[in-house]
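Recap from last week: sequence in, structure out.
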Amino acid sequence: MLFNSFVFLLAFLPITYIVFWQLESRVARYAWLTAVSYVFYGYWDAKFCLLMLFSTVVAYTAGLGFLKWPESSRARRLCLIIPITVDLSLLGFFKYADFALQSVSAGLRAFGAEVGFPRLDIILPVGISFYTFHTISYIVDCYRGVVRPTRNLLEFSTYVSLFAQLVAGPIVRFRQVEQDLENLGKADRTRWLGVGVAYFVVGMFEKVVVADYLASFVDPALSRYWELSTTGAWLAMLGYTFQLYFDFSGYSDMAVGLGYMFGIRLPINFNSPYKALNPSDFWRRWHISLSGCLRDYVYIPLGGNRGSEAQTYRNLLLTMLIGGLWHGANWTFVVWGLYHGMLLALYRAFGGAWDRLPRVLQLIGTFVLVVVGWVMFRSTDFTMAADLLVRMFVPTSGESIDRGAALLPMLVFAGIWAMAGPNMHELKDRGCLLRHRLALAAASGACVATMLGAAGSPFLYFQF
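Predicted structure tokens:
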């Protein structure tokens, strides 16, 4: 089910909201949110609800084990190792089995061995990467003593399956919402309602009006990338740069808004990443929940910056490689992750010189480096990536984007909003002032008008 669909807006959300606030006990609200979240998730394919339920029960049982067995005991360590192995095995099978088999086949053929494995064509469950991160982060935090495991299965299932952030984040750690979940029975319906509606409407505007409009130009252009001129290639990639941001940021803002509407504060996931002045700053602003998890559960356990400089660079590269692979089963994502790892390593080595550059050059330089990275992220293979990069940086004749004159106004609007305007987290009195309410009403009207004229499109991060 899509947030930007009439079935969600006119049926699912009103029913869920009204019933939730009619219930008075915490347990009843847990049960209701869990039930409707499984309905929301099962709208795509109901059988995958069983997979999420299995992961939930495994992680919950591990938490009970941490409560039962003392620190340093073998049983306690097994409660860490076995559930994480199970979760990663499920993720690996559904997301990476075909990728691994085809990569092995390609490697063997490169050495002259004609060995091929058939494609399994496994259907990837929507959101499996996100809820797997939820369960693993919970298990690790319980083991470390960061959070106390919950004994309430319904509370934990609400955390894992909460429809607001289930299929595309933000990646929520249990400790970030534990207090709100514990107090859910005493939540005040009107306390965060205005803020929640403001986040949701702005997020929908980002997705429906900005991102989808840009996609109508970008997708056709990149489907014939080999015909693009240098100007066309740059327009296509700039369009994709802002399409991706407003699509994913829009989802995240809608998720945060829905959380507020149900008394649960979800963490910020974007903080104007295209205002970043260096690669490190970019990853403090882009997909914040993922970068935080990679830092705490990959980079620091690898050794972080506690060893030699060479070890620190290794840890940066490995962390970003894993981050790239998390995004998809394709070598282009791996290279994209390594590219950002190299940028972080280079900034660590030469950041002093970079920081002495004029601020505007830091901003433009960082933005261009990010756009170059998005070429690899968007490309289906290395041939496409190489062709696009050549066309962008070597003057090439060819076609421009169809109806390019209609693209430019939205491209300029998106650029100003992303690189100069405030984001929702920076605005004070969100949705409270009269001018804000009028703007939200206008944005809502624009979203409805756009949705009436086109079918709802999936969010880009659903594929991850």
